Task: structure prediction
Amino acid sequence: MLNGRGQRASATSRVALPVLGALSLLAFWQFLIPLFGVPKYIVPTPWQVMLRIAADPLLLWQNLVPTFIESILGFIIGNLAAILLAIGFVYNKRVEQAYFPVVLFLNTIPVLALAPIIVLIFGIGILPKVIIASIICFFPTLVNMTRGLESVSASEKDLMHVLSASGFEIFWKLRAPRSLPFLFASLRIASTACVVGAIVGEWIGANKGLGAVIIQSTFNYRSDLLYAAIIVSSSLAVAIFLVVTAVERRIINYQ
Amino acid sequence: MPAGLPSGSDGRSSLAARPPAIRAAGVDVAFQGPAGIHKVLAGLDIEVADGELLTIIGPSGCGKSTLLRVIADLLDPAAGAIEVFGQPPAVARRRRDVGFVFQDSTLLPWRTVIENLRLPDEVGRGAQVERRDEQGGASAAELITMMGLAGRENAYPHQLSGGQRQRVAIARALLSRPRILLMDEPFGALDEITRDRLNEELLNIWRSTGMTILFVTHSIMEAAYLGERVLVLASNPGRLRELEDLRAVKAAASGSIRENPAFVERMGHLRAVLRTC
Ligand SMILES: Nc1ncnc2c1ncn2[C@@H]1O[C@H](COP(=O)(O)OP(=O)(O)OP(=O)(O)O)[C@@H](O)[C@H]1O
Ligand SMILES: [Mg+2]
Result:
């Protein structure tokens, strides 16, 4: 590397500085919050949360599994439906003209506000959670994927036509690869949003899952368990996010 | 001399005997504009001999790209007839008779150099009709060497210079062994040194393949230096203003053509004509 020193310095600080930042906040939380007189049953210290996770790993694990399943199913179903519909849009211009503006409008509805209605309709099983998680993933991916598939330039289309490429070939050799960066941008959003959707579904009607733990421990003033469940939830979201970005880096390796 | 391409069977002498590569008669092209129908080409007649290198020049918007697009079957003329080797453009396209090089190289960014080169081999098989089975077509690997891209096979387009990208685009067009190469300001975005070098390489390719080339440019020097004939288009609507034949001047010139007095005089003439377009 030509600019070796500068790059090494920035690589160190890229890792070290956020770690320091996080540690400073944890220290602030651990030592200063109690000094302000905030009671432990409202805000536990990080250490207490750690102890709770260590004491109840089985409880947290048993509730992580359903949330994980709902999130992943929602992620797969919502994104798959969005991708297929986007392909339909691109090949049916009239349908797209009729429905794409509607989609843009629906996209502005806060899906979480619909969660109670969905639970009301579909009961308290796994289904309403999967549906909420799917809907959260669906709209951003539909919008991005439609734009991505259409982001081919005029000269790229000309090139394919001069080569007498079929519609099938134009899709696989041009539109699909063009759309991938757009798709992954929305998959990254969906990777964390699907967990939010599953948990909100569990808030409203469930007796298992991290969302149920969050609600129950809140009502019971078990704030150490509440915080432990929150940390496990965000770990789940981060894990899905990291998988998506790892796949993205493998597939989009040309930039 | 570039190796591996089919060589022209003879020199440039017997051109007149062969049927023309392109024949356009009364070609009109019109677009629906905001103020009604907008005629872009009007009554264009032109005949390009097989193996000719014709350069096309004219003010911006006069229809140079449109003319190439009609020949490549990217656009249908509103009126008139156009034939490519005696066939409609759609047939010529499906026979892979026509190659196109765009101003922006139009390389697919997710494909490496060699993968971009191979694109013509991966698509269009279903549509092709009676493909000419000439022997001696250059393979992708040979074209890489010929275009000075050896060692860059696995580079992605964004890792190449503008000149290298255009070389890849030319190599890709040559892979299907077209009989006609349409080039729309292919070197317009390049610096002058790179442009001169690519002009030289293009002339070598042309001489060794016997291909017909239509080359659009905004540079009078480039048009005159490359072209056997220079087609000057006037605008609004696009029509033939002048067809300048430089073959005699070039044949008579010895030494550097760019400094030849007769050649410089013809360039001055072209410049004067362009001012009135
Ligand atoms: N798809 C289109 N729809 C409407 N008008 C068009 C279309 N394509 C080209 N035109 C018009 O046709 C005219 C000629 O365009 P063309 O691209 O052939 O010009 P050109 O000679 O290649 O110009 P330049 O030197 O700037 O590339 C322009 O006035 C342009 O606005
Ligand atoms: Mg043009």
The pocket of adenosine-5'-triphosphate (ligand 1) is lined by residues B 31, 40, 58, 60-66 (CB under 6 Å). The interface with chain A takes residues 69, 72-74, 93-94, 96, 98-100, 102-104, 106, 108-111, 119-120, 122-124, 126-128, 156, 158, 176 of chain B (CB under 8 Å). Confidence is low (pLDDT under 50) at residues 1-15 of chain B.
